[in-house]
Amino acid sequence: MIVIQAKLIFPNQQDKQTVLDLMRRWSSCMRFAYKRLLEGYERKTLKRDLPKTFNLNSRYVDDAIMKARGVLESSRQLGNNPKKVIFGGRDLFRKLKKRHINGKEYKKLKTKWQEKRKWKLYSRGDKSKKGNLNTRIEVRKNGTFLRINVGERKYVYARIEAGYKKNKRREELLQEIAESNIPYSVELKLKNGSIYAYFAIEEEYPEIKITKEKGVIGIDVNAYPDNISWAEVDEKGNLISYGSIAMPELASGDKDKKEYFRWHYAHEIVKIAKEKVKAIVIEELEIKEKGKRGDYSGRKSRRIRHNFSYKSLFSKIKTLAKREGIEVIEVDPSYTSIIGMLKYSPQYMITKDIAAAYVIARRGLGLQEKIPDNYIKFLNALTVEELEELKEHVKKTVKNIHIKKKHLKEINKAIKLIQSLESEPGKVLRPLYGTSFSTYDFWRVLKVAVVTPLSPEKVKRDFSTLKELLIQGKWRGP
C-alpha cells in the first residue's frame, strides 16, 4: 500500500469548522459502533440506525463500523482486553492521569489526546465510484483540491499542499491517481490545529519470479538478543551460507523510531534474498494463547504478544518481497528452536538461532526432520529415575525461581511421557516407532535430558558438547 501525506488548506475558517464538525461526528460514530460491536450488534443493524443518530450518510457510517471492527480485532490479536480500549491513545491517557503534570504542559497534552480521539475521518475508495465518492481528489488549473462531502449534497473544497515544502512529485502522483479513477482511501486527522489528509492506494505487484525452486532463505527473529538470524539452503535443503543482523533499536525507543528500523531491517533481508535469488521463509506468528482467565493475561501471553512487534516486521518483509517479485512462504514455528539446537547446532557448529533459521528454511521446502539414530538410542536408554535425579539437582542448584519452575514443569512432563511408554517400572522405553510417542514429544524430552543439565541457570547457546552424543552416541553429561 502506498500512502501520501498532505496538508489541507481551507479558503476560509467557516469551511474548516464545517469539516471539523464532520470529523467530530464521524469519530463519535466510530466509538459508538465499537461499543455496540462489543455488545454483539450486527453491522446491518448499525448501518441502518447510526446515520440518523450522527447525521452521516450511510457510506461514512459503514466506514466507521469497519474501522471500529478493525480496532476490535487488533485488540484481540494483541491480547488486550477489548473492553479497556482507550481511544486517543493509552500512553497519552496515562500521562494525563499523572497529577504532577499541570499548567501549559497539561493543556498541551490534553489537546493532543483530544485531537487523536475526537477529530478523525476515514473514507474508503470505491472502483465503481471512480476513486472515492465522499472525499474526491479534483485537479484544477490553480492546483489540486480535495472535495469533501459534508452532508445534504454540500461539499467543502480544500487545497492539497503536499508536504511542508511543496513536493511536486507528491502532487503529480495525486493528480495521476485522480485522473486514473483507481480506488483510493482518504483519512483526515487533526494535528496541532491543522487538518492533514492521508491518501492510500493498493499496490499492483509484479509477477513472482524468484521462487523456492532454487532454494530458500529461512528467517528466525529472536527477542533476546534482538537480532535476525538467516540461513540459505539449496533446493535439496543443504546449508549454503548463514548470518545474523543485530537489531538493538527495536529493544527500546519510541513507536516511530521502531517503525523506521523495522522497514530498514526488512530491506536488508529482501536485499539478501534478491542477491542470492532465493525465496524467503518466515514464521507464521499468531497470538492464540488466551491465558488462564481467557483475557490474554499471564506471563506466557505477554511473551506471545511481544511477537506482535515481529509480526509487523514480517509484514514489511512480505510487502517488500512482493515488490521485488520474491516468493514468501510462512511455516509453523513449533519446535524450530529446539530441533535446531539439538540437531544442527552441534552438527554444523552454528548458533542456536541460525540453526532455528535453518530448520525454518527446510520446513519451507516441505522437508521433514529425521531423528538421529544416536538420539533415539539415548532416549530409549533414559529412565524415570534419571529424570527424578535431574529434578532434585534443579531444586538444589537453580536459584532463579522462575527458571526453576519452568525446568521442573518441563521435567514433570517428560516423566509422564516416559511413564506412559514404559513396559515395566525401571525398564527402558519401548521402541519409538509404532507408539503414540510423537516427534515433538521426542524433542521435548531430549531437551530436558541433555540441555537442562548443561545449562540450568540460563539459555544455553553453545551446543558443541552434544556433538559427541549426536555423532558417536557417547554422552558424558555436564
Descriptive account of the structure:
The protein is 49% helix and 17% strand. By secondary structure, the protein is α+β, with helices and mostly antiparallel strands. The protein has three domains: 2-201, no CATH class; 212-364, 2-Layer Sandwich (Nucleotidyltransferase, domain 5); 373-472. The strands form two sheets. A seven-stranded antiparallel beta sheet has the order 2-6-7-1-5-4-3. Strands 10-9-8-11-12 form a five-stranded mixed beta sheet. A hairpin with a 2-residue loop joins strand 4 and strand 5. Helix 1 runs antiparallel to helix 2 (43-54) and helix 2 (43-54) crosses helix 3. The longest helix has 26 residues, at 13-38.
Layout of secondary structure:
Layout: E1 2-9, H1 13-38, H2 43-54, H3 58-78, H4 90-97, H5 103-118, E2 120-123, E3 135-140, E4 143-151, E5 154-161, H6 168-180, E6 185-191, E7 194-201, E8 216-222, E9 227-233, E10 239-246, H7 255-276, E11 279-283, H8 299-323, E12 328-331, H9 336-348, H10 352-364, H11 373-380, H12 384-397, H13 401-419, H14 439-454, H15 467-472
Parallel strand pairs: 8-11, 11-12
Antiparallel strand pairs: 1-5, 1-7, 2-6, 3-4, 4-5, 6-7, 8-9, 9-10
Helix pairs in contact: 1-2, 1-3, 2-3, 4-5, 7-8, 9-10, 12-13, 13-14
